[in-house]
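User: Fold this; C-alpha cells only.

Assistant: Input:
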Amino acid sequence: MPASNQNRPNWGKQWVGAFAGAVLGWGLVVIFPALEQRFSLLTVILWCAAIGAGLTNLDGFMHAGAALTRRQNNQLNLIVGLGLPVLVLLLITLLLRR
C-alpha cells in the first residue's frame, strides 16, 4: 500500500531522529565504557535510535491517545499514547514469564 503524501515528511523526521539517536548512543558508549561492558555496543545504539525515532514522532502518539480519550487535552493524549506501547510490552512480558 503506498504511503499517503501527509505521512512522507514524518518518515524523514523519524530517520533523522533515529540517526541522531544512534550517534548519541555511540557517543554515550565512548564516554561511559561501563555501558559497553553491561550491554553490547549494538544494543545501546539500537535502543538510542529507537528512542530518537519515537521522540521525533510525538504527534503520532498524541493522535493515538486522542483516538482513545476523544478529548482535546494534548498532555493527556500524549500520556495515553505513550502508555499504550508500554502496556503492550508489559503484557507480553507477563505472558512470556509463565
